[in-house]
Design a protein that fits this description.
Elements (H helix, E strand, L loop, with lengths): L1 H40 L1
Length: 42
Amino acid sequence: MLKYILIFADHLRRAAGFILHSCLSAIAAFASNKIALFCSDI
């Protein structure tokens, strides 16, 4: 039983890491896009 809980927890941790990475990538892309637009206006 404990083995399955640990496996499930590991999957959850990996999923959370993947989601966090995706969010950070999206934010970074959005920010760099905004910075590029701002710099092109100057």
